[in-house]
Design brief:
Chain B: InterPro entries: NADHpl_OxRdtase_5_subgr, ND/Mrp_TM, NU5C-like, Proton_antipo_N. The complex is a heterodimer of chains A (about 525) and B (about 650). Chain A is mainly α and about 525 residues long. Chain A is built from 20 helices and two strands. Chain A has one domain. Chain A has a two-stranded antiparallel sheet. The N and C termini of chain A lie far apart (about 50 Å). Chain B has about 650 residues and is mainly alpha-helical. Helices cover about 70% and strands about 5% of the residues of chain B. Chain B is globular. Classes of the chains: A mainly alpha (about 525), B mainly alpha (about 650). At the A-B interface, helix 5, helix 6, helix 7, helix 12 and helix 14 of A face strand 1, helix 5, helix 6, helix 7 and helix 24 of B.
Chain lengths: ~525, ~650
């Protein structure tokens, strides 16, 4: 038996989480370093997975399969396709930056405060989330996926509810209440989604007799497993609902702004850049493969909801007064693009959507983490409390601008490639939807540049006049993200090469081919 | 030889990277690094130009493939450069004028503590602009297209501590994004029509597509061009863009970037040739803008804003010419090049005047400066003669050809467009004479002026660093600034004639753009004669108003049209009421809707399932932790139960 590489990518951060939690309270710094090293080691493993993965090979690679609950046909089955590899790499890449950016976020508060901030717990929870997200990307058993899809809510709940921004305008008491509200809202929304999915998972089992994604998809493809149209549609909706809550898709999005504004910036990145990606990833992997006909049936509705997310999220971002809420609504708009790309059912749309998940992760991390550095300096999330920061902290302002430009998908930076692919992939099949979605690029310029203008330019406000520029640790967080944004904007081929074959498979799962150009001679 | 093409872009890109990442230790030499790399690019351009000249006219296209950029199924975008006569013309203009303006900026920005960064941005602009004109497909062009937009944003807002500069920069970017939407949609249309968006296959197969699709592509490209080239209805950003340092206005907002729209239309000539409806709209946009910009230019007292109106108007001429099809393409580009010389020269002259006048921009506080700034006066004067189309100077040749081509379009359209172009020539003569007279002639109105009040701070905050706040002592600028002005003045005088002798420029570009003579109802002589009459009328009226009579220090109230023109023909008022106010209301109500309605309905619906909203409401009453724990217990139970199943 070969080395279980995929299991290792999840076990390592899980074990790291336990070890970090076990570090004695006094050795706070040691716990941080331990967590950072574990996350870096996980990144190394993820790179090994990337290298070992052969884009031209079998659909699922590095597979592992063990009996687990034989009576119910539940197996411990792992395997990655190109889409999963890309997202696994993204997750493993972002966690070290999240840990490093949140280095002081869980330090004990000044003496006299009643609040208990277990430093070890903070970093252990981040690693626990990493482990569960990674196994969700790897699981090819529906039940196995479901368990971790749900279980990751637990550490996320504590991260949101337990560790907010260090300072708060209305005092610690009010902050604590709002944090709890956000955490519970997050939990309830996702639990409701999860419960509906659980019903669908059980329903799938009664129809198919097992939980294996590969077996069911195979049986569906060669016609040995027939599903009544209505059954397939109900099951599809059960799965899709849970993923749409997590993604989040309009109108199920309202938990995200609360969760992101109340948590610390690194945790906000963890939510939107990593955890939410499981939702969109699962749409591609489970909805389209298991329920191809129902997916096509639901496509028009989903496209319209995605389009609403794009425009609505962007318009709301324009109207925000809170920096973090603004980024949250921008993310809602971007998730609209991702879902649009998935359900446009074209190669460009789906490759673009997968690339979008990766690029959005990096660009949101860049913008949000710098925003977090900014907020930690002034102790306020309100845009109006800033002004003229570029004069006193030019490097901070410069990196913030690059993060903003990535968020508005400036050509030359990574998000442009994926956004354009999604748009063009949508346009070839649904021109009207493609054109309306294009309005999103104007609104994105509006909300990012207005944010930059209000916080960074103009006369220096007295409250920010003594603001220090980025420190070495913060630069170490931001600089590699910026390099990646530029690199993947200029040369996205390494990612698209991994993703393309998997997208072709998914396209054939749903029996779709790309529309042909009107003048074929030109090609 | 084609391997040199990438170096054209690489040199300024390297400069931008070094200057922006290099930090303070490069402050002392940064401006020379920037100038050197810009000049290097120009030298490469000249070498390539010599190479092209050595080839046959039909063999002057060099291609350089670097790497595959975005490969997804049928969608393939490569980083490939195309150097042909059209892009070569732009390369020389961009790097040539660009290098002169780098040199000028060494002097102009001398007292600015962020000079290194300024040169980094200028280099970034050059790299992006060269990418724009050298790209071999529309998606790569898009990178350059928004790249110049970024450079423009950074440079308009260079003095970010001024709210007006920051606002102007943001406005320019966002208005341009509306245009960029057009470019996006055009590329998507090309992809669905041709399965590709590379120049070669799209342009050679354009006639295979239906006219409806080509018209749609053409109109979307026009929308893009309107944004970048400040054409009606996306013109509103250009006047505000004058918030940037004056060398930026000269290079980006006069000579090069704003002409990118003309490049796009001429490059896509094959599409427009087969879409006459789109062409007609192009000519209308051009004609409207050339009058719009000219009228605005007449009413501005700010020298830079008057010149900005003029730029808009002159690009209107180019767009008009480009819309005429093969009759006009060559002359659109020729006017673009000559305009590059004289308008850059005029802006540098304006900068030189401001440099000697404590950064004053109000022409009502100038007057009689010819004695104090002889070099500026002569170079600005030559640029003035060139732009109004004084016989023998550059603008005469290029503008005259456009007016001729407009009449040659034939029919009623030809008469209307030709008349607009003639009218524009008269107004150009008027407003440029006004600028000339108010600045260099007449009373010295800057004497005994009250010092600037703090409420009206200088447009160019460099003055604060120079510590000049007393009465101005007009003086000539240093050589590092006057030499570029002299070089551009030489171009303003001779370029047009040089291009026109033996139709040199026509023969150079013809293989790319094609050319046809058209059938003009007026003889060439008649058009030239009419143009001269317009010129004399324009100059004459301006002389009567500003040369014979003293210029009041405070602008008179003026007619309704004058007042509207001062406010840019109410374009901003319209935008403000309709877009800004409307948008604010929309977002504000959406924020409310999201908070109450969407959140409420979803929570309420969920309440039916699990009492969600009740729990949330009680939560806010302060029982947070207990409810959280109870919910959480549920989740934990679920997981525990699942794991236990294993034992069963």
């Amino acid at each position: 038996m070969s080395f279980p590489l995929l299991t290792a990518t999840a076990v390592l951060p899980a074990a790291g989480a336990v070890a970090t939690a076990a570090v004695p309270a006094a050795r706070r710094t040691a716990a941080k370093w331990l967590a950072l090293l574990v996350s870096l080691a996980t990144l190394v493993l993820a790179i090994v997975v990337m290298v070992r993965f052969d884009p031209g090979g079998a659909r699922y690679q590095l597979t592992e399969s063990h009996a687990w609950i034989a009576d119910f046909g539940v197996r411990y089955e792992l395997g990655v396709d190109g889409i999963a590899v890309a997202l696994l790499a993204l997750t493993a890449l972002l966690i070290p930056f999240i840990i490093l950016a949140g280095w002081h976020d869980a330090d004990p508060l000044e003496t006299g405060s009643k609040r208990w901030r277990p430093t070890q717990g903070f970093f252990a929870l981040i690693l626990a989330v990493e482990a569960m997200v990674i196994i969700s990307f790897e699981a090819t058993d529906v039940f196995l996926f479901y368990i971790f899809f749900e279980a990751m809510l637990i550490p996320m709940y504590f991260l949101i509810g337990g560790f907010g921004d260090r300072a708060h305008a209305q005092g610690e008491e009010a902050a604590s209440t709002q944090r709890s509200y956000a955490a519970v809202k997050f939990l309830l929304y996702n639990l409701v989604g999860g419960l509906i999915m659980l019903a669908a998972v059980i329903g799938l089992y009664t129809v198919a007799g097992n939980f294996s994604l590969t077996e069911i998809a195979q049986a569906r493809a060669n016609g040995t497993l027939h599903m009544a149209t209505s059954t397939e549609r109900w099951l599809f909706l059960g799965f899709f609902f849970a993923f749409a809550v997590k993604a989040p898709l309009w109108p199920l999005h309202t938990w995200l702004p609360n969760a992101m504004q109340e948590s610390t910036a690194p945790v906000a990145v963890l939510i939107t850049a990593v955890v939410d990606k499981v939702g969109t990833f699962a749409m591609l992997r489970f909805c389209l493969q298991l329920f191809p006909e129902a997916s096509k049936w639901a496509t028009p509705t989903i496209l319209v909801l995605a389009l609403i997310s794009i425009i609505y999220g962007a318009l709301l971002a324009v109207g925000q007064r809170d920096i973090k809420r603004l980024v949250a609504y921008a993310s809602i708009s971007h998730f609209g693009f991702i879902i649009l790309g998935i359900f446009a059912m074209t190669s460009q749309g789906q490759s673009g959507a997968t690339l979008y998940m990766v690029n959005h992760g990096i660009s949101t991390a860049a913008l949000m983490l710098v925003a977090g550095f900014l907020i930690s300096r002034r102790g306020s999330r309100l845009i109006a409390d800033y002004g003229g920061v570029q004069k006193v902290a030019p490097v901070l302002a410069g990196t913030f601008l690059i993060g903003s430009l990535a968020t508005l998908s400036l050509p030359g930076l990574a998000p442009f490639v994926s956004e354009f692919l999604v748009l063009v992939g949508t346009f070839t099949r649904y021109p009207a939807i493609g054109i309306i979605a294009t309005f999103g690029i104007v609104l994105a310029a509006l909300y990012t540049l207005v944010l930059y203008q209000r916080t960074m330019t103009g006369p220096v406000k007295p409250a920010v006049s003594a603001m220090p520029d980025l420190k070495a640790r913060e630069l170490v967080v931001v600089a590699p993200l910026i390099v990646l944004l530029i690199f993947l904007g200029v040369y996205p081929k390494p990612v698209t090469d991994i993703v393309n074959p998997a997208v072709n498979q998914t396209m054939s799962d749903v029996h779709k081919t790309d529309p042909k150009p009107a003048v074929e001679a030109a090609k | 030889m084609e391997n040199l093409i990438a170096l054209l872009i690489a040199a300024p890109l390297l400069g931008a990277a070094v200057l922006l990442v290099g930090g303070r230790r490069l402050d002392a030499v940064g401006h020379w690094i920037g100038t050197l790399l810009s000049t290097t690019s120009f030298v490469f351009g000249v070498i390539l130009f010599a190479d092209l000249l050595g080839r046959n006219a039909d063999d002057r296209t060099l291609m350089q493939h670097l790497f595959t950029w975005v490969p997804v199924a049928g969608f393939q975008a490569d980083v490939t450069f195309r150097l042909d006569q059209l892009s070569m013309t732009f390369v020389l203009l961009i790097t040539g004028v660009g290098s002169l303006i780098h040199l000028y900026s060494v002097g102009y920005m001398e007292h600015d503590e962020r000079r290194r960064r300024f040169f980094g941005y200028l280099n970034l602009f050059l790299a992006a602009m060269l990418l724009l004109v050298l790209a071999d497909n529309y998606l790569l062009l898009y990178v350059g297209w928004e790249g110049v937009g970024l450079a423009s944003y950074l440079l308009i807002g260079f003095w970010q501590h001024k709210p007006s500069a920051a606002t102007a920069a943001k406005k320019a970017f966002i208005v341009n994004r509306v245009g960029d939407m057009g470019l996006s949609i055009a590329i998507m249309l090309m992809f669905t029509t041709f399965g590709t968006f590379a120049f070669g296959p799209v342009l050679s197969h354009a006639t295979d597509a239906s006219e409806g699709r080509l018209t749609a592509i053409g109109l979307m490209l026009l929308l893009a061009a309107c944004g970048k080239s400040a054409q009606v209805p996306l013109q509103s950003w250009l006047g505000d863009a004058m918030e940037g340092p004056t060398p930026v206005s000269a290079l980006i907002h006069a000579a090069t970037m704003v002409t990118a729209g003309v490049y796009l239309i001429v490059r896509s000539g094959a599409v427009f040739n087969a879409a006459p409806d789109a062409q007609l709209v192009v000519t209308v946009v051009g004609a409207v803008t050339l009058l719009f910009g000219a009228i605005v230019g007449c009413a501005k007292d700010d020298i830079k804003k008057a010149l900005a109106g003029s730029t808009m108007s002159q690009i209107g001429y180019m767009v008009l010419a480009a819309g005429l099809g093969p009759i006009g393409y060559v002359f659109a580009i020729m006017h673009l090049v000559t305009h590059g010389f004289f308008k850059a020269g005029l802006f540098l002259g304006a900068g030189s005047v401001m440099h000697g006048m404590n950064d004053e921009v109000d022409m009502r506080r100038y007057g009689g400066l010819r004695k104090y700034m002889p070099v500026t006066f002569v170079t600005f004067g030559l640029g003035y003669l060139a732009i109004i189309g004084f016989p023998g100077l550059s603008g005469f040749f290029s503008k005259d050809k456009i007016i001729e081509a407009a009449f040659a379009k034939g029919g009623t359209e030809g008469w209307i467009l030709g008349t607009c172009a003639l009218l524009g020539a008269a107004i150009t003569a008027f407003y440029m004479t006004r600028v000339m007279l108010m600045t260099f002639f007449g009373e010295e109105r800057w004497r005994n002026q009250p010092t600037r009040s703090p409420e009206a701070p200088s447009a160019e905050p460099a003055a604060e660093h120079r510590g000049e706040h007393a009465e101005p002592h007009p003086h000539e600028s240093p050589k590092v600034m006057t030499i570029p002005m002299i070089a551009l003045a030489i171009g303003s005088v001779f370029a047009g004639g040089f291009f026109s002798i033996g139709d040199r420029f026509l023969h150079w570009l013809e293989p790319i753009t094609g050319h046809s003579e058209g059938d003009s109802p007026l003889s060439a002589g008649a058009v030239t004669g009419a143009t001269m009459v317009c010129l004399v009328i324009g100059v004459g009226i301006a002389y009567l108003q500003y040369g014979r009579r003293p210029v009041p220090a405070v602008a008179p109230r003026g007619s309704l049209l004058t007042r509207a023109a001062r406010r840019d023909l109410l374009q901003d008022d319209f935008n403000h009421v309709v877009l800004v106010r409307g948008g604010e209301h929309l977002t504000r109500s959406l924020v409310y809707v999201d908070h109450t309605l969407v959140d409420g309905v979803v929570n309420g619906t969920a309440a039916g399932f699990g009492g969600l909203s009740g729990r949330l409401r009680r939560l806010q009453n302060g029982y947070a932790r207990s409810y959280a724990v109870s919910m959480f217990g549920g989740a934990a139970l679920l997981v525990a139960a699942t794991l236990l199943m294993r034992a069963v």
